[in-house]
Design brief:
Pfam families: PCRF, RF-1. This protein is α+β, with helices and mostly antiparallel strands. The protein has two domains: 2-45, no CATH class; 51-282, 2-Layer Sandwich (Alpha-Beta Plaits), CATH 3.30.70.1660. It has helices at residues 2-15, 24-45, 70-90, 120-124, 211-231, 235-242, 277-281; strands at residues 60-66, 94-102, 108-116, 129-136, 145-156, 170-175, 191-196, 201-205, 253-258, 264-267, 273-274.
Length: 282
């Protein structure tokens, strides 16, 4: 913060000079730099005490993937998506659905959203991990109790990651956007899927009508993931930025949501639990 404050003082001194506006183009650049730095300084100054991570102030890219549990897990994935979107909006964040793969019968197989706002990553980074649901299944004719799992992954959005993408390392596919039940919602193949062959990382985007826009967004997500991977070459960085990666199955959950035979939400990392499941999910 001291370096930012020092630079602000330097810029302010330049702006107060009598000849400052003689070169309008240069003056406008100085004013723009000053405004950007001032906004950054204010955000850091008002940073909540519990947001001390290096990337906490960035936007967040949150991905949801249904795991063990079939249709029940896919419905659970859609419930979590709704929960995160509602929480983000209540916090004043802007939410953009970048990709959503609907289930055949109900729910979603996967989804990726971009959460924009100051300290979005700080608010959502602790959601990394497996989320377990126990309830009476509405998809079971016997109305039996089912357990299902969903994997949530949260990474910071890096506005301009210094990652070089070689064309020969990318497999780019286009497809038609689909809605619930597998029905196509676009007549053209505007959705884009990109696979980074060396790392096998796959990202997709179908939020825009333009194939070019979807490609640009998918490349942004891929660069953020690769930049994160670069940061996590050491085990210390893995725990710092993203946390450990688990399979969406029994024994790996970070939080359990029980709706039957009793109601409880329990965070297995902190031991905190509450019976007010409605407040958590809604």
């Amino acid at each position: 913060m001291n370096s930012i404050r020092q630079r602000l003082d330097e810029l302010q001194s330049q702006m107060s000079g009598p000849d400052f506006w003689k070169n309008k183009e240069r003056a406008q650049k100085v004013v723009q730099e000053y405004n950007d730095l001032k906004a950054q300084y204010e955000a850091l100054k008002n940073r909540p005490e519990f947001f001390k991570g290096e990337y906490d102030d960035k936007n967040a890219i949150l991905s949801i993937t249904s795991g063990a549990g079939g249709t029940e897990a896919q419905d659970w994935a859609s419930m979590l998506l709704r929960m995160y979107i509602r929480f983000a909006q209540k916090r004043g964040f802007l939410v953009e659905i970048l990709d959503q793969n609907h289930g055949t019968e109900a729910g979603i197989k996967s989804a990726t959203i971009l959460i924009k706002g100051s300290f979005a990553f700080g608010w959502f980074k602790s959601e990394n991990g497996v989320h377990r649901l126990v309830r009476l299944s509405p998809f079971d004719a016997d109305h039996a109790r089912h357990t299902s799992f969903v994997l949530v992954e949260v990474i910071p959005e890096f506005s301009a990651p210094e990652i070089e993408l070689k064309p020969e390392d990318l497999k780019i596919e286009t497809f038609r956007s689909s809605g619930p039940g597998g029905q196509y919602v676009q007549k053209t193949e505007s959705a884009v899927r990109i696979t980074h062959l060396p790392t096998k990382i796959t990202v997709s985007c179908q939020s825009e009508r333009s194939q070019l826009q979807n490609k640009e967004t998918a490349l942004m997500i891929l660069k953020s993931k690769l930049f994160q991977l670069k940061l996590k070459e050491k085990e210390k960085e893995i725990k710092k930025v993203r946390g450990e990666v688990y399979d969406a199955s029994w024994g790996n959950q970070i939080r359990s949501y029980v709706l039957h035979p009793y109601k409880m939400v329990k965070d297995h990392r902190t031991g905190y639990e509450t019976s007010d499941t409605e407040a958590i999910l809604n």
